[in-house]
What we know:
Blueprint: H1 14-23, H2 28-46, H3 55-69, E1 83-87, H4 114-121, E2 125-130, H5 158-165, E3 171-176, H6 182-188, E4 191-194, E5 214-219, H7 222-232, E6 249-254, H8 263-278, E7 282-287, H9 292-310, H10 312-318, H11 324-334, H12 338-361, E8 366-370, H13 390-394, E9 399-406, E10 412-418, H14 424-437
Parallel strand pairs: 1-2, 1-3, 6-7, 6-8
Antiparallel strand pairs: 3-5, 4-5, 4-9, 8-10, 9-10
Helix pairs in contact: 2-3, 7-14, 9-11, 9-12
Amino acid sequence: MTTESPLLIASLPLRRTADALGSGSLDVEKHVHEVCDRLEATGLAVRAVLPEPGRRDRLIREATALLERYPDPADRPPLFGVIAAVKDIFAVDGFATRGGSALPPEIFEMPEATCVRRLRDAGALILGKTVSTEFAYFDPGATANPRNPRHTPGGSSSGSAAAVAAGYAALALGTQTVGSVIRPASFCGVVGFKPTYDRIPTEGVLYISQSVDHVGFFTQDAAGAVLAASVLCNDWRPPPATAERRLPTLGVPEGPYLEQARTEAHEMFTERLARLESQGCTVRRVSALQDIETIAERHRVVYTAEFARVHDAWFRNYAALYRPRAAMLVEAGRAITTEELETARTSIARVRAELEELMSQHDIDLWVSPSTTGPAPEGLGATGDPAMNLPWTHAGLPTVTLPAGTAAAGLPLGLQIAGRAGTDEALLAWAQDLEALL
Length: 438
């Protein structure tokens, strides 16, 4: 028996929605009303989007202005009328930034995030802020998983993943320091994309760790991820047409890293690999990430030390307002020396080089692995284990998760795909092909 809750899930694929809004076959004001109706009907159950008095009226005014600016469909920008949501660690003009915390928002004021401005310039309408765990770490917010409200949506981009799954936004921004895009996307059954490190600008975002923080996003479709990436990524180069692409050679990182996946995730992964291989993909099993415990520890040192440095003044003034996990992270980071931090940072380039060298040696196009150690855990007190995402984030490699089936209880499981640094275009092009095969 499935635990899926159809009342909390709605279809809103970005590519098809953008095409309909751009052509005029879907009226932008009608679309705003439909989304707002859905948010008002189910928003209190999902708790993905932060409250905003007068949201509908504001969006209608902005939609009207957009129509007046672009009356001719032929002149409309690529995200004309698309409703996008933004994690509450991004600066957005007209909205306070709280980072899921109780600290006064005035201390976080800064110019609007570059990536948010790119969405607006491309014609998107900003639905509002989505719930984040406190400072994008592990203290969760109130968001429930639209697939089953008794289960976590993941974190730290909890509200963004849930908002896309629930059909409140066709596109939502998130961030990833360990697994905060890929994990919630997998838990909520949507597509999540984390680009090559620094491919999407991070200006205007509250950092956990400048060395490993990535801006990413959520959509319901791989084609929509290509569209969003073309707007958000620096120097985007359109991928080749489908007819010009061969199916990729997939590398499976055998060893202790892969062994972190629990039975349900591993069984799904094995079955999906067999299916992809039967449809023409080459699969190669390669010994990789044998030192995953060391990689994880160095990654922890980097983000812990950098978090403490980012929060130094805020914590001195507002320590009593921090929740327990974030406060403990600051205290732990203060104990890490500059020398220890610099040593840990050297691991980033080393792990990237090692993974890319293995790709060259074994003629691998993409690494594949389970997106999570298992389905979304029950309860809202924790956000799940990011272990399957950590090495790809540490190395700064572009990574995408695709919905790839369900566990016995009906909760989603994802397939995680990673490419070489800088090959975001090829990764997402192949993601469309693999989505079709899956």
